[in-house]
Amino acid sequence: MDLSVYFSINCILILKIVLMEITTLKDIASKLGISVATVSKALKDYPDVNKDTKKKVLHMANKLNYTPNQLAVNLRTKQTKTIGVIIPTTVHHFFSKVIDGVIAEAEKKGYLVIILQSDEKLFLEKLHVNLLIDKRVDGILMSLSNKTNEFVHLKKIISRNIPLVLFDKVEPSIACSKVRIDDQKAAYDAVSHLIKKGYRKIAHFRGDLNPKISNDRFEGYRKALLDHQIPYDPSLVYICNNNKDFEDGYQNAQKLIKEHKDVDAIFAITDLVAVGIIKYFNELSIKIPDDIAVVGFSNWFMSSVVTPTLTTVDQPAYKIGKTATEILLEEIELLHQEQPITHKEVILPTHLILRESS
Amino acid sequence: MDLSVYFSINCILILKIVLMEITTLKDIASKLGISVATVSKALKDYPDVNKDTKKKVLHMANKLNYTPNQLAVNLRTKQTKTIGVIIPTTVHHFFSKVIDGVIAEAEKKGYLVIILQSDEKLFLEKLHVNLLIDKRVDGILMSLSNKTNEFVHLKKIISRNIPLVLFDKVEPSIACSKVRIDDQKAAYDAVSHLIKKGYRKIAHFRGDLNPKISNDRFEGYRKALLDHQIPYDPSLVYICNNNKDFEDGYQNAQKLIKEHKDVDAIFAITDLVAVGIIKYFNELSIKIPDDIAVVGFSNWFMSSVVTPTLTTVDQPAYKIGKTATEILLEEIELLHQEQPITHKEVILPTHLILRESS
DNA sequence: TTGTACGCGTTATCAG
DNA sequence: CTGATAACGCGTACAA
């Protein structure tokens, strides 16, 4: 017999003995010979309870290590002090920072966070919405998947009177609060920067056709060109839709070089795409930014350590998560107090971070 | 008045009208003129209920969009179908992949996941343990913070009879299941690889002194040297403990070059440290691997796109999360069935990924 | 100041 | 096969 297994079993036996009993109000009440109601009130600092009994209750509660059973509290108060988050994926620098912000803010206000991933699939998004509704979370935070093109599940949340805040990938037609950046303006700024630096033949590696975010960035790109009297050339726009941003960037860079030898800059929809481009150019010894400049989007950590370092748009991920959560918790609070809710749309500022690649 | 605000308020009014009532067993029962008990049984497919009534109940439940109130279910069954995860941070490639694995596996089995961050602080770790216990999660998954040097909070979990699985950063003395890699062997393999490639003066950028993980990797480094008749030189070991891995790598590389001009390889405790080293060497035009080879640890995505690409130890993050969750859910299930639990210690294999930097 | 009694929505036992 | 009834643990209006 393996020693570690033996050890483990041994431990279980010991544990059975040390097992801590969970104390309830009833336990305290019976030990003290008073009623459950009084104990409850004492613990919640009600005014109509004798100082002495309160002290006794507090002492006993402490001694028995009492903590209220949240399940029972939830059932009574109809609040779970829990919010749900649905995002495409956690394995993503942007989203993990958003989560960081969400958890930090929620925790500060005494809320717990349940995280679910849509994996960019509509049916999973729907499934998870139902899961969260059944779980009776107090509110829901969502960044929509790229494939989401119908919104009954969002309407269901709203019709159930559960506060919903959309962030990042947002649907304008849904009546709820939203937190996002101005993708069009951010893209416009990035491309304008390239133009000001003297680049003229600027390609754009864009995202899928459906998501608003990708169209907005594309529009920003186009507008920047037109506003600076550079004709818009559709053949300079490449679509990255394999959900493999890095390889999309790498492969499209390859294509681009074949099809447009004279291109002098690329605006990529995402840092990952940009890093794919950089990788390819490095392999071919195409000099960045001397031969071709590259600008990314999101300011992933990676963009600051890659060679050359990447000029990119800083997207305040942590702040997006934090703000969305603030609004959500506010709405939850208002709802609880039966006060009217006014939905907000917050647009957080972005900044272009200038680095070596442009 | 701002139009969007007006629009929002309008929407609220509409919502109030569409508000969906939540149906309970009682509703179904009264509509059908039967008892709650029968409805409950019909819905749960108990054998002792008439086919006709069952059909009627099912139909009505469907019509009214009935879903059981999980809060009540939880209170009754004393299960929340929720597990808690405490990790140092979500903003970390390794941990976000672990989370991915955890959520995927939990979801498959119908469990939800609450995530909390210790931010490498012991007091937060303790706080969160209490939060999760109060929340009555069915089980807890933890990767300990670097600062964790006492374990009463872990013992508290166990004494409450809540299944606990430790992963990645593990404490051997705690009687619970564990999922981890063999850090010492992984480090040994990495350094042996350098030696076989002909490198002789190999530095090690290690982690903080406390965490087991960092000591294990250091031991692997030392053993590999000794086993290959290379004397161990303590002055070649640099400590990275600023919690800023990238900068630690960068700065220690600077120091190393000053203090040991003839060093020919570095084994870094983490890819981030390695990338910091690479960055510094790139700036100084020190050739990797010709002048100095670099090996990292973890196989972050970044390591495959940096220039030169980084040789590193692949740590199966997703699998670690998935396996830990599997074991946890198993133990939860066993506990629920009042069957004895045997703790497991799973050691997942790592692989050295050979790239350009060595 | 304290205690009684009920409700939250389910599940489970047991009698009919 | 069906339905009272109790219980889970807590909160609170109301009676004492």
From TrEMBL, chains A, B:
Q: Does the keyword Nucleotide-binding apply?
A: no
Q: Provide any one GO MF term from the record.
A: DNA-binding transcription factor activity
Which sequence ranges are marked TM in the entry? none
Which key words tag this protein in UniProt?
DNA-binding, Transcription, Transcription regulation
What InterPro entries does this protein map onto? HTH_LacI (IPR000843), LacI/GalR-like_sensor (IPR046335), Lambda_DNA-bd_dom_sf (IPR010982), Peripla_BP_I (IPR028082)
- Segments forming domain HTH lacI-type: 23-77
Quick check: keyword Coiled coil in the entry?
no
- Protein name (Swiss-Prot/TrEMBL): Transcriptional regulator, LacI family
